[in-house]
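Exercise 7. Given the encoded structure of a 230-residue chain, write a plausible sequence.
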């Protein structure tokens, strides 16, 4: 005979039932955790599987245009990236990473957590942005280390991001071509120094030994790559 927490006698049969129930609950914890906290890639794939509507996406993007501009060309200062022409998969994953806190971006976090930006709206906006041509003035670097930047990019970056910076939509690898120099430089620095949060570990290891001059050279080279033809 045992005594429960209320002082009531608890039979051996009831005790065995309680233990069995507890064990069953413990066995379910990994499954429950997986459902509550799916991997960012799996979540992104679920969003991308939704039937996206570019017209709805254009209307929803109006709320973003104040910073990202109407043509999604961003800001040459580097504060805001160019989103036009970017892979929808990349936009979805980065927004979800910011929302979950995996990517560190305090100014964007409250915006992507807003109830208005549900999964369907995110799919619509990403589809719309992917369809846009690259427009507007693109910020470029000083142009004094382009050969160095090209060599570093070919050695360390092209295998994943593509020889022309086109990225890989299916691998959530961003297109870098025709991105603003100052934005590229800032993000490369964050990746090198561990301040971005969702950096690919392999990429972080590659740029760990880069000097500031190396980062500037690569960013300058990439900013001058033309966007891929559609």
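Solution.
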């Amino acid at each position: 005979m045992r005594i429960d927490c209320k002082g009531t006698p608890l039979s051996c049969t009831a005790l065995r039932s309680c233990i069995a129930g507890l064990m069953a609950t413990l066995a379910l914890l990994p499954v429950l955790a997986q459902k509550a906290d799916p991997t960012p890639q799996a979540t992104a794939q679920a969003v991308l599987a939704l039937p996206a509507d570019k017209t709805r996406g254009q209307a929803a993007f109006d709320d973003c245009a104040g910073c990202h501009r109407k043509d999604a060309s961003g800001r040459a200062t580097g504060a805001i990236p160019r989103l036009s022409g970017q892979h929808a998969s990349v936009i979805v994953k980065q927004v979800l990473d910011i929302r979950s806190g995996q990517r560190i971006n305090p100014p964007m976090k409250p915006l992507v957590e807003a109830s208005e930006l549900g999964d369907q709206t995110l799919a619509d906006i990403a589809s719309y942005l992917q369809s846009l041509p690259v427009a507007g003035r693109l910020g470029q670097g000083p142009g004094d280390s382009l050969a160095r930047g090209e060599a570093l990019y070919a050695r360390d970056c092209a295998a994943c991001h593509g020889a022309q910076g086109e990225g890989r939509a299916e691998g959530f690898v961003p297109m870098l071509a025709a991105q603003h120099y100052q934005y590229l430089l800032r993000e490369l620095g964050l990746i090198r120094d561990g301040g971005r949060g969702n950096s690919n570990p392999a990429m972080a290891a590659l740029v760990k030994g880069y000097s500031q001059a190396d980062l500037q050279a690569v960013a300058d080279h990439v900013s001058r790559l033309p966007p891929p033809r559609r």
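Remark. The beta strands are 2-3, 9-10. Students should compare their own answers with the one above.
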